[in-house]
Specification:
Order of helices and strands of chain A: EEEEEEEEEEE
Distance between the termini of chain A: 37 Å
Oligomer: heterodimer
Number of strands of chain A: 11
Helix content of chain B: under 10%
Strand content of chain A: over 45%
Distance between the termini of chain B: 41 Å
Radius of gyration of chain B: 14 Å
Order of helices and strands of chain B: EEEEEEEEEEE
Largest interface: A-B, 24 and 24 residues
Radius of gyration of chain A: 13 Å
Structural class of chain B: mainly beta
Number of helices of chain A: 0
Largest sheet of chain B: 6 strands, mixed
Chain lengths: 117, 114
């Protein structure tokens, strides 16, 4: 149990376009989802926390108008990178926490590698 | 906010030897400390965690110790095997009973050589 999926796994886009990444909890209800960014050989940096049905809480330094997060249901959260630029290229990972596992336990998705040309 | 430091950044051990990774945290309110293993291009996998009401926890070859006074916690892997090679991250958070954000350490690249 406690499976989190992400789609797409890889995406290449042109500079200036928008990209949407989906994060789904497949076998449990995710009341909270987290979005992280990871640069090569670096740690996971939390971008934002989203609770189902409410606005996301962004970490300091993360532009909320550039990284749009929607957590419309208990099984789906989306991250949209708007007007992407090469510096947005990174590995984006979501995690979900909710009705599976022990409370506070986060289950991670497989990640999405974004390359902006 | 919370700040987690982790060292060493790289660690090479021979198969069968033990490996120790250490982390320190800054926020005395933190009370939940998970450890994750991440293989290249893969998702982080929780391998063990500890809460502040205990000082040590063990699961087969893996153990974690916590010193609340000194605000540091450590991961111990005994009888290392090649498949233990990966990047290990420590993290800290304040467990309020609902999901709370994790602050990750900088990671340790463990290589187990034959």
């Amino acid at each position: 149990g406690a499976v989190v999926s992400q789609h797409p796994s890889r995406v290449i886009c042109k500079s200036g376009t928008s990209v949407k990444i989906e994060c789904r909890s497949l076998d449990f209800q995710a009341t909270t989802m987290f979005w992280y960014r990871q640069f090569p050989k670096k740690s996971l940096m939390l971008m934002a926390t989203s609770n189902e049905g409410s606005k996301a809480t962004y970490e300091q330094g993360v532009e909320k108008d550039k990284f749009l997060i929607n957590h419309a249901s208990l099984t789906l959260s989306t991250l949209t990178v708007t007007s992407a630029h090469p510096e947005d290229s990174s590995f984006y990972i979501c995690s979900a926490s909710g009705t599976s596992g022990r409370y506070n336990e986060q289950f991670f998705g497989p990640g999405t590698r974004l390359t902006v040309l | 906010g919370e700040n987690v430091e982790q060292h060493p950044s790289t660690l090479s051990v021979q198969e069968g030897d033990s490996a120790v990774i250490k982390c320190t945290y800054s926020d005395s309110a933190s009370n939940y400390f998970p450890w994750y293993k991440q293989e290249l291009g893969k998702r982080p996998q929780l391998i063990i965690d500890i809460r502040s009401n205990v000082g040590e926890k063990k699961d087969q070859r893996i153990a974690v110790t916590l010193n609340k006074t000194a605000k540091h916690f450590s991961l111990h892997i005994t009888e290392t095997q090649p498949e233990d090679s990966a990047v290990y991250f420590c993290a800290a958070s304040i467990d309020t009973g609902t999901a709370s954000k994790l602050t990750f350490g900088t990671g340790t690249r463990l290589q187990v050589t034959l």
